[in-house]
From TrEMBL:
Places the protein is found: Cell membrane
Primary residence: membrane
Family: Belongs to the membrane-bound acyltransferase family.
Annotated protein name in UniProt: MBOAT family protein
Keyword Thylakoid: no
InterPro entries in the record: Ac/AlaTfrase_AlgI/DltB, AlgI, MB_O-acyltransferase, MBOAT_fam
TM regions (residue ranges): 6-26, 38-63, 75-95, 116-138, 158-177, 387-407, 428-447, 467-491
Lineage: Bacteria, Pseudomonadati, Thermodesulfobacteriota, Desulfovibrionia, Desulfovibrionales
Length: 493
């Protein structure tokens, strides 16, 4: 179920009404929230609900087994978690690479001289890939691996694990939460003091959650409905489909436009998810922090899709040995290559992941052996160095986005060739496109300040004015956006 639909608005209104009821026990609250999660996922893809239950059970049972045996039975515990992780990788691999494997098998059979078609084995791929599969598998695996690594973390009940992996604001496209971020927010916790003081504090906190929650939702709607939709419809879609019809300048602007589109699309989704979470009493972690201001690829991955970056670091990079075992540069490269493959079976995703891996390897090596370290003490040189570092990082990221977005690697290379040709032959672009690109870059700089200021104003307004202002801004955003809004980009992953 897309967040930017009338159906979801109605659904979420019922959720707010249900959760606003006076619930006396934690157990009742969790049961109600679990029912909401299951209902939401059923609307998104009821045929895949059994798969969600299977993933929850695998992680629940593996945590029980690894926790119920003493540490001296290390081989048994490692075997249990290994099997649990392998099963989920196989599930993920089957659904993500099913088409690739079938087509590869058919090509191999035909190369042997046998004319056998396996196309009949390929169902509609839009139906085949379960919604949110990558995200709830990663979330569930983090729960099980954390309890394998730290036996002080006691296993939760199956229903609690299911509640965690199916949490509806994040189940479709993240952010990927950890159990340490989720479960403490379910605990009953009353601050010390009188009942009157507690009620006043509760009202203040609820008012702040409402203000910040709607601020996040409005921010996400503006990014997705206005900016991402405009850039997609007016330049990105057409240029990436047929770059040969456009001038070098237009293809270059399209490259920048897609970098801004994917940021507005994905961070817009995250903002809405965070806002929804805040309105129902949960603090969902940030997933973006002005990534296009990064002055290195290492910093970029600390700012972009933060929950996935941290997941790959904690559960892939560290498992490979991290900085302690083996070669950290090889571990980095393997981690980012797997991160690229996570997005799909296409060669372009492999190139994208490997290129980021090589970039991070160079980045870490340069940081260690940088011959300019002494010169960075000079203020002017330090600022100049920081600018060029940002410039190179930003353009490296933008160029690599070409492989992420293009239909195939040939199109990506064709766009790079077109940009480098500096030809004026071909169609141009609407003048509002560079304005939208610059506005998105400006949001990287002042976005936090605008958000804080608007949330502060919204918190101070009384309820009628608060509701009127939210409704007015929503109406303006929907008026500025297209008639129909495309699904979020990361729904396909």
């Amino acid at each position: 179920m897309n967040f930017v639909t009338f159906q979801f608005a109605i659904f979420f209104l019922f959720v707010l009404i249900l959760l606003s009821l006076r619930i006396n026990t934690l157990k009742t609250h969790k049961t109600l929230l679990l029912g909401i999660n299951i209902a939401f996922y059923s609307f998104a893809g009821v045929q895949f609900l059994p798969l969600l239950l299977i993933v929850a059970f695998i992680n629940y049972y593996s945590a029980v087994l690894t926790n119920s045996h003493p540490l001296k039975k290390h081989a048994f515990r490692r075997g249990v978690i290994g099997i649990a992780v392998l099963l989920q990788i196989l599930i993920l691999g089957f659904f993500k690479y099913y088409e690739f494997l079938i087509l590869s098998a058919e090509q191999l059979i035909n190369s042997a001289g046998l004319q056998i078609s396996l196309i009949f084995l390929l169902p509609d791929m839009d139906i085949l890939l379960p919604v949110g599969l990558s995200f709830y598998i990663f979330q569930g695996m983090s729960y099980a691996i954390d309890r394998y690594r730290d036996t002080a973390l006691k296993p939760m009940t199956f229903l609690d694990v299911l509640l965690f992996v199916s949490f509806f604001p994040v189940v479709l496209s993240g952010p990927i939460m950890r159990s340490s971020q989720f479960f403490p927010q379910l605990m009953e916790d009353s601050p010390a003091g009188s009942d009157e003081e507690y009620e006043q504090l509760e009202k203040k906190l609820i008012n702040r959650d409402i203000a910040e929650g709607f601020s996040y939702i409005l921010s996400g709607l503006f990014k997705k409905v206005v900016l991402a939709s405009y850039l997609s419809e007016h330049i990105v879609r057409d240029v990436f489909q047929s770059p040969e019809f456009y001038s070098s300048e237009t293809v270059l602007v399209a490259m920048y436009a897609y970098a801004m589109q994917i940021f507005c699309d994905f961070s817009g989704y995250t903002d809405i998810a965070i806002g929804i979470g805040r309105l129902i009493g949960f603090k969902i972690p940030q997933n973006f922090n002005a990534p296009y201001l990064a002055t290195s690829l290492k910093e970029f991955w600390h700012r972009w899709h933060i929950s996935l970056s941290a997941w790959l670091r904690d559960y892939v990079y560290f498992s490979l040995g991290g900085n302690r075992k083996g070669n950290k540069y090889i571990n980095l490269f393997i981690t980012m290559t797997l991160g690229g493959l996570w997005h799909g079976s296409h060669l372009r995703f492999l190139i994208w992941g490997m290129a980021h891996g090589l970039g991070l390897v160079f980045n870490h090596a340069w940081t260690r052996y940088n011959p300019c370290k002494a010169m960075l003490k000079n203020g002017f040189f330090a600022k100049t160095y920081a600018f060029f570092s940002w410039f190179l990082t930003f353009h490296a990221v933008c160029v690599l986005w070409l492989f992420f977005r293009a239909g195939n690697t040939q199109t990506a290379f064709a766009m790079i060739t077109k940009i480098l040709a500096f030809t004026e032959e071909g169609d141009g672009y609407p003048l509002l496109v560079p304005i939208a690109v610059l506005l998105t870059m400006l949001m990287q700089v002042i976005g936090k300040h605008c958000f804080s200021g608007f949330a502060f104003i919204l918190e101070k307004l009384c309820f009628p004015f608060k509701a009127a202002l939210i409704a007015l801004i929503c109406a303006i955003i929907l008026k500025l956006g297209p008639d129909g809004v495309l699904p979020f980009i990361y729904f396909q992953f």
